Amino acid sequence: MRITATTVGLLLTATLLAACGDDDDKANNGRPSQESSSSASDSASPTPAADLGVLVERTDYTFNLPRGWVDSTKDQALAGPEDSYGSLATDADHLVTVDAEPDVSQELFDHGLADMIKNLKSFYASHGKKLPDTTWADETAIHVQGQGQKSGTRAQAFYLRHDDTAYIICVQTLGGQEQNEAAVEVLRSSWSWN
Asked: Most exposed: 35, 72, 79, 131, by fewest CB within 10 Å?
């Protein structure tokens, strides 16, 4: 099967939107949130061991979930061999989603990028925005952030490519931006490529 930019964009966007996000902002009639948010820091600083939770190990990468979260990948019927899911409890909504799509060339990745950003931003209605590019484990990552007005959900998504695999890493939390940044920082600081 030949993988196309459209296929990659649709697969990654569908996975992300199904697993991580909140479109209840549309009920706010497109009005922007009053609270401003900051982006995740470009460099991952060490996270105190007390904040690290379960170690998630896949063939191509490892990372720690925040303390108290569980690896809920086995609960996902459609999870690929390199995908990961984390949540606060078994059978709960996934708050961490790692979607890996293998065999994606740089050209294909670049071609699908504009659609990917547009889809992620539109999913959060007026609350979705592309932030400056950042790094994730020494790879350049496209960074999109959003929030759900009614539910209080905060999400950050990172779209990157490592060794011909495209990744979407999404971290979603309830509460303020500070909780979301802390969860992102646990993943970023503990992430390593195998």
From this structure: 35
Residues 18-26, mean pLDDT to the nearest whole number: 48
134 Cβ contact list (under 8 Å, min separation 6): 39, 40, 41, 42, 140, 141, 143, 158
Q: At 147, give phi and psi (nearest 5°).
A: -150, 150
- Distance from the first to the final alpha carbon of the chain: 27
* Domains with residue ranges and CATH for the chain: 5-24+45-193 (3.40.1000.10)
Q: What angle do CA 89, 120, 76 make, to 5 degrees?
A: 30
Name residues whose C-beta falls within 8 Å of residue 157's C-beta, 6 or more positions apart in sequence: 16, 20, 120, 143, 144, 145, 146, 168, 169, 170
Buried-state track 98-119, b at ≥16 Cβ within 10 A, e below 16: bbbbeebeeebbebbbebbbeb
- pTM for this prediction: 0.76
Using CA atoms of 188, 191, 156, 141 in order, give the dihedral in degrees to the nearest 10: 90
